[in-house]
Structures are given as structure tokens and as C-alpha cells.
């Protein structure tokens, strides 16, 4: 974790598959952002720049309006995506 000027925190969480999650918080501006990075590219994200929005799976450069996203919800969405991918892999390998 890196803290800048007592008002900005950046956290990078490394996952077992070589992807990682970046978390950013600015206490002065109240900006919050979460990004799941795979192969050095955002695969999914959420932030409140302007208003809360997500950068959806499959179209991470898009902005889709959303309700506030907390970190627990963000992680849950990634977990669901990983579980769906694993389920699809299992179906393809057994069929």
C-alpha cells in the first residue's frame, strides 16, 4: 500500500493467477476506484469519477451508470466471473 500526502491511498492486491486488483482512494476529493487488471489491461472496474459507474466485463472501456459499488461487492462480482469461467472450462473439457 502506498499513501501519498496523507489523503491518497493506493493498494495493489496480487491474485494467484497473475492478475491484480488496484484500489485508489482520495480523501480530499472522495474519489474511489477499483480495477481488476489482467495482462496489464483493465478487465473490469468501478469508480465514482463524476457519478458511480462500472467498466463492465468484456467492455472495460465503456462506462455504465450504477449505484455505489463498495469493495466487497466489487470482489464478489470478480469471484462470480471467475466461477462462471471455471464452470465453462469444466464443461468444455468434459464434453
Description of the molecule:
By secondary structure, the protein is of the alpha+beta class. The protein is built from 1 helix and 7 strands. Strand 2 (8-14) and strand 3 form a beta hairpin. The longest helix has 24 residues, at 71-94. It is globular. The model has no long low-confidence stretch (mean pLDDT 90).
How are the SSEs placed, and which strands pair?
Layout (H helix, E strand, L loop, with lengths): L1 E3 L3 E7 L5 E7 L4 E8 L2 E7 L5 E3 L8 E2 L5 H24 L1
Antiparallel strand pairs: 1-2, 2-3, 3-4, 4-5, 5-6, 6-7
Helix and strand run: EEEEEEEH
Unreliable stretches covering 5 or more consecutive residues:
none
Care to count the β-strands?
7
Mean pLDDT: 90
Percentage beta strand: 35-45%
> What is the helix fraction of residues, given as a range?
25-40%
Count structural domains. Answer: 1
Multimerization state? single chain
Report the structural category.
alpha+beta
Overall morphology: globular
Report Rg: 15 Å
Q: Count of helices?
A: 1
How would you write the strand order of the largest sheet? 1-2-3-4-5-6-7
Largest sheet: 7 strands, antiparallel
- Separation, N- and C-terminal Cα atoms: 44 Å
Briefly, what is this?
The chain has 95 residues and is an alpha+beta fold. It has one helix at residues 71-94; strands at 2-4, 8-14, 20-26, 31-38, 41-47, 53-55, 64-65.
Properties at a glance:
95 residues; alpha+beta; 7-stranded antiparallel β-sheet; 39% strand; globular
Amino acid at each position: 500500500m502506498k499513501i501519498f500526502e496523507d489523503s491518497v491511498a493506493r493498494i495493489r492486491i496480487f491474485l494467484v493467477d497473475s492478475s491484480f486488483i488496484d484500489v485508489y482512494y482520495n480523501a480530499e476529493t472522495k474519489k474511489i476506484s477499483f480495477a481488476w487488471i489482467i495482462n496489464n489491461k483493465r478487465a473490469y472496474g468501478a469508480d465514482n469519477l463524476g457519478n458511480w459507474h462500472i467498466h463492465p466485463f468484456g467492455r472495460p472501456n465503456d462506462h455504465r451508470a450504477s449505484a455505489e459499488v463498495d469493495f466487497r461487492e466489487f470482489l464478489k462480482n470478480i469471484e462470480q466471473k471467475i466461477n462462471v469461467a471455471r464452470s465453462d472450462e469444466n464443461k468444455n473439457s468434459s464434453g
